[in-house]
Amino acid sequence: MTPAGLEISGGETVLFWVIAPLMVLAALGLLFVKRAVHAAMCLVFVMVSMAILYIAQEAPFLGVVQVVVYTGAVMMLFLFVLMLVGVDASDSLTETIRGQRWIGVLIGIGLAVILGGVVANATFPPAAGLGGGDPGGVANPQALARVLFGDYVLAMEAVGVLLVTAAVGALVLTHRRRLTPKQTQESVADRRIKALPDGVVLTPLPPPGVYARSNAMDTPALGPDGEQVPQSVSRVLRIRGQERPAPEGPAVVVSTSSTRGATSSTPESERDA
Amino acid sequence: MNPLTLAAAAPGVTADFSQETIWASIVKAVLIVVFLLTSVLFAIWFERKVVARMQVRPGPNWHGPFGLLQSLGDAMKLLLKEDLTVTRADRFVYLLAPMISVFCSLLVFAVIPFGPSLSFFWTDWTTPAQLTDFPVAVLYVLAAASLGVYGIVLGGWASGSTYPLLGAVRSTAQVISYELAMGLSLVSVFIMAGSMSTSQIVDSQTQIWWFIPLAPAFVIYVISMIGETNRLPFDLPEAEGELVSGYMTEYSSMKFAWFFLAEYINMLNVSAVCVTLFLGGWRAPVPDAFLGGALNEGWLPIIWFLVKLWAVMFVFVWVRGTLLRLRYDQFMVFGWKVLIPVALGWVVVLAVVQWLQRVQGVTFLDFIPWIVGAAVVFIAIMWFWPEKKEAPPGTDVSAEKDKEPVDAFAGGFPVPPLPGEKLPPSKRFGKEVHGE
User: B216: how many CB neighbours lie within 10 A of its CB?
Assistant: First the structure.
């Protein structure tokens, strides 16, 4: 069926048979994996593989745009929401609508039958190739630009306006009116200083106590007067009642050489050295 | 079809890949990887040394000449460190994430031209000094960058811990918003060069490097490239003071080293794109006709390219040594309310000017009255712009004016005024201070 010059090269055949099964596996994975992030990763894999196939079929612009727009922006936003909302393996699988599973299965089978029928009945004209020696081929970004912004410029503008309207609409719907004046860094600082007489501490709270036998977060520090400083223990631990009393007896001063080993060095601090 | 034959046949690509064989491509790919890995070792040393000199200290100077072997030692140390895996981590994704980062960062240099076509002394075989090129090469760079973010995002998520997750979320928002500005600044280069192929863009800079006529786009690109690579002052995804190490908090040993490697390769990537698109690529920093163009032929351009690359890398280090980290909300406001509108406006202005010049045949001299007029109007507006900003709601300025000045020395010691209190005017106000 293929005219001369349009034979599929051996490299492309190998590429297809390597990528296509992996894509099918990933697409199945999208349906069957438990965690939402894994499903998103499967989808990303399918998209990138599709981009590779597009590029192999002489459509580099389409392939690259597929990655930039869908993988880079759309799926990234999906992941963003997944991580923010914290969708996890513990997703509830209870039916919110009675019998929705069966309705879903029925509609799915119906769709598959229709799609299968359409695809089975389709007849393809002989392959013409994308460029075919014609410099106005769609693979050429300039030719593509001429089609999009010349022939279909009105449709492009309409779609653009629709998208902007949707974005502005979402902003308007989620917008809240500011009822109180905006807090600036200066006003917050002023407020805290004004609250000084009420017992607000400006400095960081004292750290928990460090003793020879216990330097955990749950042991309060001793003040210079030998009294325990309750604020030195995290508020959460205090409320839960997990605070431990400080060891009895006077505080012992430990030589600095032993405490130096306790400070752990993170990789981040090393690279800043 | 083989992508290489595609590139050779594609219209709008200057580099000639017709003599390319698969072996030449493999050799070039290996050379690029070797170049990147050694450059990273050098970049770490370079950054530490330059930052150290800026902070008036010697920096690494112990291992090897000028301390050059310091980063090699650091790399060995990272390899031999204990490889921890967090219990709550999602193991597969946790391992995959650093690999994605490194893989995507290695992709970009495939389309960067190191020079024009190279010929070898003992043959008549010539080959372009770049692995490949195609009509949408710069978009491919953007695609590789946007895939690389998955490494950061998934690494943060898979660690199963709070700080990495926060770092990952920050990085997503950051990269999405700064990639927009970056893409818009690249669009103006596309408009001027009439192509998205890297070799053609370098070829279009024979007369003038694009950073001069496209100065606003260049500035926007430089800002957004720093945001894109998560470097100071935009290193919010790994802000030490806030998030320990952000997305790589739970990574150690080689897995951490991969993230580290990817970050430095990404710096090299965006610098190379900056050089190729704005700074003339491999062209010598002299007019093209100088010495009959001998400086732009053969192997010499590779040196120009490397010099420019490291000049941009120096800017990275310089910025890091100079600026403080932005607050997160200020950073996002800067991206969305300053960078993107300015970039959009610039693209519109440039497109209109190009249309006037190319389609309507308006010459540059015809623009001068308009530019002067616009400048006059702008200066006039700025002249009459009210100077004082309106006081923010909640602060009552008039009440403060009527207050009695507080005596700062009431208790014998100088005490700064509380909010709402006012100091008496300084006795030295208006007097000249005489030095020695």
Answer: 17
Prediction pTM value: 0.75
Q: In A122-272, which ranges are continuous DSSP H helix?
A: 141-146, 153-174, 185-194, 235-240, 256-260, 267-271
Class of A10-89 in CATH: mainly alpha
- Contact state of A266 with B245 under an 8 Å Cβ cutoff: yes
Q: Tell me which residues of chain B, numbers 281 to 320, contact chain A at a CB-CB cutoff of 8 Å.
A: none
Task: Give the pLDDT of chain B (436 residues) as one tens digit per residue.
Answer: 344 444 444 556 777 777 777 888 888 889 999 999 999 999 999 999 999 999 889 888 888 888 888 888 888 888 888 888 888 888 888 889 999 999 999 999 988 988 888 777 777 777 788 888 888 888 889 888 888 888 888 888 888 888 888 888 888 788 878 888 898 999 999 888 888 888 888 888 888 888 888 888 999 999 999 988 888 788 877 777 777 777 888 888 888 888 889 989 999 999 999 999 998 888 888 777 666 666 777 778 888 899 999 999 999 999 988 888 888 888 888 888 888 999 999 999 888 888 888 877 777 777 788 888 989 999 999 888 876 666 555 555 555 555 677 777 777 777 777 777 777 777 777 766 665 4
Closest CA to B160 of B98, B89, B91: B89
**Which residues in chain A have Cβ-Cβ distances shorter than 8 Å to B418?**
193-194
Contacts of A38 in chain B (CB under 8 A): 93
In which element (H, E) is residue A72 found?
none
Instruction: Inspect the interface and report whether the beta carbons of A271 and B179 lie closer than 8 Å.
Output: no
| Residue ranges of domains in chain A | 10-89, 140-175, 201-244
